[in-house]
Amino acid sequence: MRNVFQPSCRHATPRRFASGEMPKLTGAADNAFNRERMAVKQHAAASSDLWRKLSLYVCIPALILAAINAKNLWDEHWEHWEHLPPLEDRVEYPYMNIRTKKFFWGDGDKVIRFSTLFWNDKVNYHHKDE
């Protein structure tokens, strides 16, 4: 008796999914379905090659250039900050640091650790009401 789970026929050669050339169709295999299938495979191979080249030769250099640009802008920004007066000497306009009530985690100034989520001592300063 034949085993139900074994294929009925075995191929003499294994399938090669990543082979370089597409075989030529001859005889009964040369029908519309197989021709369309071959065209789809050739299109998929060309498309994947295009996207691989775009990824390697366009995207990676663009990311490197964007990183260099971001680093230059970052350095310019902090170089500009070095020329500004100290935070304590800057004018505090009425629209800055408006606080009508305390936050539930503190007053909003970075006096104690974790008293606010959005405070950076290098760029933020709040003149206390005298």
Class computed from helices, strands and strand pairing:
mainly alpha
Q: Number of helical segments?
A: 1
Biggest sheet layout = none
Low-confidence stretches at least 5 residues in length (pLDDT < 50)? none
pLDDT averaged residue by residue: 77
Shape: elongated
- How many strand segments? 0
Amount of beta strand: under 5%
Distance between the termini: 100 Å
Q: Would you mind describing this structure in some detail?
A:
The chain has 130 residues and is mostly helical. Helices cover 39% and strands 0% of the residues. The chain has one helix at residues 32-82. It is elongated. 0% of the residues are buried. The model has no long low-confidence stretch (mean pLDDT 77).
Brief description of this entry?
The protein has 130 residues and is mainly alpha-helical. It has one helix at 32-82.
Characteristics of this structure?
130 residues; mainly alpha; 1 helix; 39% helix; 0% strand; elongated
What's the topology here?
Layout lengths: L31 H51 L48
